[in-house]
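Please complete every field before forwarding. Incomplete forms are returned to the sender.

SECTION A: IDENTIFIERS
Entry label: holo-114
Bound molecule: zinc ion
Molecule representation: SMILES string

SECTION B: INPUTS
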Amino acid sequence: MLLIRCPYCEEELPELEFRNAGEAHVTRAVDLASLSDEDFEAFFFIRSNSKGIIYERWRHMHGCARFFNAVRDTVTDKFLMTYKAGEPKPDVAGAARPTAAKPARKRTTKKAGA
Ligand SMILES: [Zn+2]
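SECTION C: PREDICTED COMPLEX
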């Protein structure tokens, strides 16, 4: 079982107390209505889902109920660190780049049997 440290409660607790809330540090546009459909799709649906070190949001559901961020290695499933929401993104070697700066990807359709 994974142990996750809540930066607010300052305790290391079993993962069952927590819930993953997706990728951290996704920048929200000031005016979502002005985004093109492709840019909105990139903001709303596209996440980096990289292998290795990632930044995630977590919520301490069965404790303080607060959101915080974590740096986790998806290969080893180990938490490198956790930090409070709103704190700057720590610079961790080998970490994935944030998705907000990525341009929208173009869709490609593959034909069956091609
Ligand atoms: Zn907590």
